Amino acid sequence: MSDGTTLDTSIWKEMEEFFSDDGGLQDIFCLDCSHTDLLTLLRFFTSGRFRIVVRDGKRDEVSLQDYPKNIAAYFTDVNDTYLMTVFVGECALNFWLYSGNGYVELDLDSRCILHEREFIIICEFMKAIGDLISKKVNFTREGAPSAIFHYDPAVQNMFPGGEKRE
Q: Is 140:29 a contact under the CB 8 Å cutoff?
């Protein structure tokens, strides 16, 4: 996934303690996202670079015969919530397909990040989405208001801490 730029992932030593095999979820989120940002991310997720699965609110798998052309239509159906699972390396990130909340959130099972190698893959993914929509990408414990670390596309690097969500 690397675009050739060097990403400083040396914060792994500081972050390693946040990943465990307890099954806890972590969140990757971007604040102040527009509908256009969401559609841009959908096109990226469905570009063929990732394996994806989409399920409806009843957890039934949804046919993607028209994908990726019609995948954006899932956002316009206010009566249903859809879940897209994006597989990044061996990690499954759950992306809830609903609009109107102003931010993008992907849930990550922390058990998939056991070594620096997996951490780097997730950091590269965060960089890719941050660069794509020109937003900071934050990593936090499930539901926590403050980020543990983040990627800032303005300076093209990872840093401890990050934005706070309400």
A: yes
